[in-house]
Amino acid sequence: MDAFISLANGLTIAIQPMNLLFALVGVLLGTAVGVLPGIGPALTVALLLPITFKLDPGGSIIMFAGIYYGGMYGGSTTAILINTPGESASMATALEGNKMAKAGRGGPALATSAIGSFVAGTIATIGLTFLAPFLVELAIQFGPEDYFALMCVAFVTVSATFGDSPVRGLTSLFIGLALGLVGIDILTGQSRLAYGVPELFDGIEVTTLAVGLFAVGEALYVASRRHIHEEKLEPVRGSLWMTKQDWKRSWKPWLRGTALGFPIGALPAGGAEIPTFLSYSTEKKLTKHPEEFGHGAIEGVAGPEAANNASAAGTLVPLLTLGLPTSATAAMMLAGFQQYGLNPGPLLFAERPDLVWGLIASLFIANAMLLVLNLPLVGLWVRLLAIPQPWLYAGILVFATMGTIAANPSPVELMMLSAFGVLGFLMRRFDYPIAPVVVGLILGPIAESQLRRALSISLGDPMVLVQSPFSAILLLIALVALILPFFLKGMGRFKAAED
Amino acid sequence: MTRRIDVAGLVIAFILLAIAGAIWWDMSSLSISSVYGVGPKAMPMIVAVGLAILALGNAVMAFRGELPARDSLDWKPIVLILGGLAALIALIRFGGGFIFATSILFAATSTAFGRRAIITDLVIGFVIGVVVYLLFSKLLTLSLPVGPLERLI
Predict the structure, then answer these.
(1) Cross-chain Cβ contact A406/B58 below 8 Å
(2) SS3 of A192, please?
(3) What pTM value is reported for the model?
(4) Within this chain, do residues B56 and B106 fall inside the same structural domain, yes or no?
(5) CA–CA dist A57, A75 (Å, integer)
(6) Would you say residue B41 lies in a domain?
């Protein structure tokens, strides 16, 4: 098996002491920042990008892998203990998890979420190991028109198909695409929408956008409604350990959650929100203890948590094999690769197998580290949650501006950061999704160059886009996925029904 | 429940339309210079047209009053945080240095979140600033903006 050999090579890279250290730092940082309310893994990676750009790419990317999984774990801790999920993927966990914590069963809730994440993460990473080489084989044959069509599917699914409102999702996406236009056009050297500002010639920095939207925007939003909403931290009482009964009720939801999460994450279907809620409603239907749902049923934590982690690993399939990010966190990972001049895709598998397989192997290691470290360290994470809110957000803003200052100490860059903060605040207030903006900014210029490449090969004949059967089918899928939600107004509303 | 026209929604729709207009106007000043296929104008055209259509969609939602419900809003903390950011930008622009800028932003944000201990928070922000400055400039060899204080360290 080729995948085995590649993975074994990856493992020899990942267990080098330096790389183990990077993975450990990533896991700890990711969990620590992920635990902070309102901060997800996307922001964690965005905050760290400017600081790591002088480090060696292999080590940094391994660290990002640790952050990716660690941030996910930290987010669920917050969801269980204070019921303010940092990201939409943890919303399903909060439903039952917070009830369990209120009933004094916070320990088992955290345990089932940690062990479930480990089981799901490991199975899904094995899935990634075997699926990736197949997709790479396939992707080698793709022409620019196929890539363009793939990106159209990603655009539509990320923004329109699975959100609450396709119009709002598409609005976010197009704001991102518009921001992606800024800068000098590579093919002709003409500047677009830069208005002579030198900071804009290279385009808008993804990290500036992400940190502005997520960190500054979140701080403004929380501050503006502090008078309405007080958070309450549930102390972890009683035993951390799961009883025999808990194990019995958890293992099937773990596996079912994995089975839902990985394929949906691997398809460009827009992040972890759908599988987690699908898993929640599945467990609610299948449970032998329906009376406990709504009052803290362990199945309702085990399933969605597994689905969340499995889909996180699934998201790495299109990211690594096709260079296609389908969530804000994946978009930040892509930005992390680009910072070192690396472009994920079939070529990277051929040119830098050490890097790709080192990363995949590190995912296994990060996953195991999380399991070993996090349950003993839960007291530390809880103490992080107890930081007074004013200091917490003051600290977040200091670190947010610091990253920008370290990367580019220019007042213009900081003004852009503040402006994106205001944008993020307004989008939260008016309920526009934020991930499509980030995906639009990073994927828009790539989609444009693929489109132009396809059309220049065909000497300007637009029929090239539908002549390859693959791209024709993908464009059809994108079209259906775009139009369908307008007819099925009820779709994607199952979230509201679960509350 | 009577549905009322949502003024804020209309403003959003208008802003989207204005952005679409700005992109179109910027695009029309480009000169086409690719021989085959589409030039640098195609993508701005797609984005501008898309934004204009979405402006229409948002306007329809606003007229129908379909925007999600919003909570009441407290403006003071927003002004404080943005003020802190403005002070930070000004200090860095005019050579006040990283540490003072950080200290002010920390205190402003903390006040925005309801703390009433500005002096203490200025000191905390100052200490964070010093630690970060040392960490960055000595350990990571990243250069942060220097002011009078940083030159002393």
Answers:
(1) no
(2) strand
(3) 0.87
(4) no
(5) 26
(6) yes
